[in-house]
Protein: GTPase Der
Amino acid sequence: MLPTVAIIGRPNVGKSTLFNRLVGKKLALVDDMPGVTRDRREGEGRLYDLEFKVIDTAGYEDEDPQSLPGRMRMQTERAVAEAQVALFLIDGRAGVNPLDEEIARWLRSSATPVVLVVNKAEGKQANDGIMESYALGFGEPIAISGEHGEGMADLFQALLPHIDGGKFEPADIDAPDAILKLAIVGRPNAGKSTLINKLLGENRLITGPEAGITRDSIAVDWIWRDPDPKMPEPDEEGNVAEPMTERRVRLIDTAGMRKRAKVQDKLEKLSVADARHAIDFAEVVVLLLDATKGLEAQDLKIADHVIKEGRALIIAINKWDVAENGSALFQGIRAALNDGLSQLKGVPMIAVSAFTGKGLDQMISAAFDAREAWTRRVSTGVLNRWFEAAIAANPPPAPGGKRIKLRYMTQANNRPPAFVIFGTRVDQLPDSYTRYLLNGIRRDLDFGAVPVRINLRARSNPFAKD
Structure:
């Protein structure tokens, strides 16, 4: 018996579109007209390595039980009662409406766990809907696009604790000893498979001089023995545990990613798409460069994609054992990265050799440090004390003589860290000031070079006075 996931929501929020994406087929009819789905439809769904039965339900409507909409609602209620978890969909572009609030009240009385999902969240039009959804009382929403497949990695993480049968264990993903999901990406023949074989100490992956040997993204579980473990902090009673020397890593080898214009073969297209999915699944991504070829435009495109997906990035320069004039090469790549990735300066950069093993422990250690920053949360009190000091040191501008008031700040998310700033006339805040705040968050709050996002909201703090 597969675990069951029920998709719930009012009419026309995209339930059938998400159902089709999860089952991998267009089984459910999809149309802009509300109420196309009547009977609940079931299919075998899959999201990465999670397998489950998924139920597409009719739009929940508050009608007489004897009417057709009322009977449809009873089918929906039965589906929720049978499910291990319910996905409560709302339309991010339309925002929260009274029927969404009615469904939320009903779901809160149910014993079935609920994951709040904001659909149609591509672009900026859904930002207000995402913020409004917090008021429904189900915690942090998962922003997705069922039509375009965006946000599926976040949906995977939200479903994971509720579903048995996936090979990825439902552990505390923010715990220091949680398995590190580490993807190795780069252009063809950069040495990705060779590097993983060196870490494993065996020829687990096929390697060779030919470019493009790897096609599928291959995940291998591995134990890293930290040669320089960090001493744990003492507990409240002053006891200190033994330092952690063994740490779990899931290494993900990917196909080489060439320039889009050069990818003509259908199989290679599928391989590159699979590599992009591996980036979505990973927590930290190592972009492997070839020291004999230096940094190329395609490397910057891959790095930019990793950052846009919100993953922590590390640059590893491979084949360092055969590199010429290493110091000049290293500084040249650093300068080119700072120019090409101006949105995220200071990305960790490590010289490695997949042949000799040079720098590999340093690379893995840096990956764990990056994951730690990527998952960090800052308390609202600490955050707003920093926020007040940052504003006092450099007040926002006053375009047209009208001062922009930034009232308070909260961390809305981690993995990657995302913050919301509330104020007035925030639409007039220049990008340079937002960058000032981003750089300060990374520097002062110890987020390092992980992607950090700031959203501005023109909403007043109900406890603050003008």
In short: Residues 113 and 351 are 46 Å apart (CA to CA). The chain is about 30% helix and 20% strand. The chain has three domains: 4-162, 180-374, 380-457. Confidence is low (pLDDT under 50) at residues 27-39, 64-70, 165-171, 460-466.
